Amino acid sequence: SGSTHLFGNGKEIADRIRKEVREELGLTISVGVSFNKVFAKLGSDYKKPDATTVIDRKNFREIIYPLPVTALLFVGKAAADCLSKLGIKTIGQLAASNKDALIDKLGRLGETIHDYANGLDEDPVASAHAEREIKSIGNGMTFKRNLLGMADIITAVSSLADLVASRLRKSGFKCTTVQVVIKDPRLKTISRQKSLPQATYLSREISDAAAGLIKDNWDLKKPIRMLNITGLNLVAESQPEQASLFFEEDEEKREKIEKIETTLDYIRERYGKKSISFGSNLFNDLGLSASETDKEKD
Q1: pTM
Q2: Is residue 214 a contact partner of residue 153, using CB atoms and an 8 Å limit?
Q3: Which residue in 124, 148, 211, 253 has the most C-beta neighbors within 10 A?
Q4: 128-182 tens-digit pLDDT
Q5: CA–CA gap between residue 183 and residue 187 (Å, rounded)
Q6: Model pLDDT for residues 32-78, shown as the tens digit of each residue
Q7: Backbone φ and ψ of 56, nearest 5°
Q8: Cα separation of 221 and 147, whole Å?
Q9: Cβ atoms 198, 238 nearer than 8 A
Q10: Domains in the chain, please, with CATH?
Q11: Strand (E) or helix (H) holding 206
Q12: How remote is the C-alpha of 200 from its chain's centroid?
């Protein structure tokens, strides 16, 4: 950002910030200075209430590795319990652990925290006002009553998929993967996803994929309290797709569906979200409506 040319090195800038906050607001703060955001955050917590901690590439093992794993970003109680069963209690032990074993136990989180422990965070610092990259678009809902059986599930999935598809079109994206998160009344949660044969922003295709995931991975006799449907691995809607000579009828059908759904977008944009909806949304006791299901996740 050029700050070092104006105000000095990282420690000098941090000390100046602390001094001005103390003089102007009467508050003490601690600041971390490091070569990545994760270690800078650890540095800000290292000495409180009034200190600057510099963590560089030479001393980070000395400062960071003795700390408990819970001090690291994204390591909550559940992750810490899992790591403890693997004999991992400090950030140093986490850094030295087998990455594949962590991925096996914790999925993507295992890979992320292993990288963080080893100082491998390269995400740039972005302005709070900067436009964020959209990596996923999803909608979820906790229903007024439990979903019981496939008829309830189809009603809920259709409504959520419609919202996801509408937001994808508005944002200019298509998704190539659909993810479903299911939570039962006891808060047991599962997450499943599947790749799509081609990128889409059509609610019918998202709905079919989501319903298929639920049917294949959930005991339909068991109640569902919450559902979330998310479009992942987004691509620009303008990205060209290879046409198939064997599915011309399917392409014509998709084009017709797309016209119908973009017309729905136009009506809702002009007359409000509740101006047009699925018939099943009008007479149900699940709490489905344009406003109640519009819990967005990016």
Answers
A1: 0.54
A2: yes
A3: 211
A4: 555 667 889 999 998 889 999 999 999 999 999 999 999 999 899 999 999 999 9
A5: 5
A6: 999 999 999 999 999 988 999 999 999 999 999 999 999 998 898 88
A7: -115, -175
A8: 10
A9: no
A10: 3-117 (1.10.150.20), 137-239+246-297 (3.30.1490.100)
A11: helix 203-217
A12: 19
